[in-house]
Amino acid sequence: MALILIFASLIVIIFILIKYVDKLRNKRFYELLKQFPSYPTFPLIGNCHLIHVSPKDMQRTLENLLGPHRRLLFWLGPFPIIALKKYDDIIAISNQTQDRDNLLNFANEWLGTGLLNANYDEWKKSRKILAPAFSSLMLSRYVDVFKKKASLLVNSLEPAADSGQVFDCRDILIKINVDTIVENTIGIPVNSTGEEGKQFAHAAALAFRGLMKRLTRPWLYPRFVYKMYLKLTGKENVIQQYRNLPAKILKDELNNNKNRKDFEENDDSLKTIISLLVKGSLQGPTFTETRMRDELLHIMMAGSETTSLNVGFTLLMLAMYQDIQQKVYKEISELFKDNDDLTADHLFHELKYLEQCVKETSRKFTHVVVNLRRTHKECILAAWLLLSSASRK
Predict the structure, then answer these.
(1) Which among 304, 272, 319, 289 is positioned nearest to 141, based on CA atoms?
(2) Per-residue pLDDT tens for 161-191?
(3) Please, where are the H alpha helices in the chain?
(4) Cβ neighbours of residue 239 under 8 Å, at least 6 residues apart?
(5) Contact criterion met (CB below 8 Å) for 200 and 244
(6) Which residues contact 196 (CB under 8 A, 6 or more apart)?
(7) What predicted TM-score, i.e. pTM, was given to this entire model?
C-alpha cells in the first residue's frame, strides 16, 4: 500500500512539474486561453468530472455545459479544448485549419487507422481510393440489395406493429444494416452475417462506450496504461471480435484474387468496396492488409451505426406525425402505382418529399454531435485570437 501511495505521489509531482514548465515555455498560449470562460478545474482531471456520464447522456450534458456560452474553455485532463457553437466561429476554424483532431488517438485501439481517424494526408489517400464506391453509378448497383433488405425490415417489424406494443427496433435495424453493408461490400448475396454480425454490432456499441470512458478518465490517456487496462478487463477480446468480420471478408477476397495485378484501372471487377481496397494496396506499401481491414471496419461501423440511427429516428418521426406519414405514403403509392420496380433514379430524383423527411430527421437528430479540429496557428474568432497547442514554441 505504501509503495502505491509513493508511486502515485511521484506521478502527481512529475505532472505538476511538467505543467509548470509548459506554462513557462508557452506563456502566450496560456494568456490567450484566459480569454475564454471556463468551469472550475481540478488537478490532473481538469473538467472531466463534469462529463462523467453515460454515453446516452453525453450530448445533453455537453449542451447544458455550453449553455449560454458562445465559446467555452474545457480541460480534458491537461489538454485544453475550446468548445464553439456559433456558425461563424465554426466556419472560421474550418477555413483556417485542415487537420482533424482524432481525439488524441483515443480510438486507435478500437478502430485502427482509417477514414474516421487518419491524419489529413492519409485520409486524402483513402478518400481517393474509395471515392468511386460512392459515385451515382456505384450506388445504382446497390439498389437491389436495398430493396431486398427493406422488405426484410418490414417483415421483421410487422409482428411488433400488429401487436400495438412499444418495442426497441435498434437490434433489428443494426443487424439488417450490417447485412446490407456486407452484401454491397463483397458483392455477393448474404442471408445473414449470423453470430459474427451480432458480435460486430455488440462490439461497435462497446467501442463508442469505451471511447467515452477513456475520455473521462485522464489516467487512461497514456497508451501503455490503456493497453494494460484493455488486457486486464478482457476488452482485448471484444476488440478482436469486432475485427473478425471485416478481417474474414478481406481474407476471402484476397484468396479469390491472389493475382492482384489483375486489378487494372478499367477492370470491370471494380464494382465493390472490397475490390477498391484490394486495388488500393497496389498503390504503395503503406496500404497493408491491416490498413485495408481497418478501412473496411470504419465503413462497416459508420454505415451500420449512422444508417440505423437515421432509419430508426425517421420511422419514429413518421409514427409521431401521421399526417406527414400519409403524405410520404401517397408520394410512394403514386410513383409506383403502375410499376413497383424501385430504381436509383427514383431514389435520387423522384421521392422528393421522403428525401425532405429523411434530411429533416438528420438535422434534428444529428449523428455527429462534435467535430474536432486542431489549429496550427493563431485563428481569429471575431475579435478574439485562439492559439493552438500545435503552435507552441
Answers:
(1) 272
(2) 777 778 777 778 877 887 887 777 766 665 5
(3) 2-25, 27-33, 58-66, 87-96, 108-111, 120-130, 136-140, 143-163, 170-186, 194-215, 223-233, 235-256, 273-280, 289-320, 322-335, 344-345, 352-364
(4) 109, 110, 203, 207, 230
(5) yes
(6) 244, 245, 248
(7) 0.72
